[in-house]
Amino acid sequence: MSLVELREYKIRPGKAKEWLNWMKLELLPYQLSQGMVVLETYTYEDEYGELWFVWLRSFESESQRQALYVKTYDDWWVKEIRPKIFEMIFEESINVRLLKPAYLLDRV
């Protein structure tokens, strides 16, 4: 079974260009080097004019997802990367949804 993780972050005003460049040049390459499969990235503007960043990652299973989390989000990430992230996005805006293929609905 494959899982898709949908992640949404609200970008701080005036930080969109910096965030998108950092994602492209640093965060995504690091995630990929750890084994993450990134399907796509998107932005959208909500009804209040606020800009959101959305990305999709794919995993073979929940156990693989958890193993990649352990590998990726280590002490270095927590100490060095997380503080930089929250200079550009609102921490409280983070929304993570785990999507499952619709064909599995008949098995629920």
From TrEMBL:
InterPro entries found in the cross-reference section: Dimeric_a/b-barrel (IPR011008)
Name of the molecule in the record: NIPSNAP domain-containing protein
Species assigned in the record: Marinomonas phaeophyticola
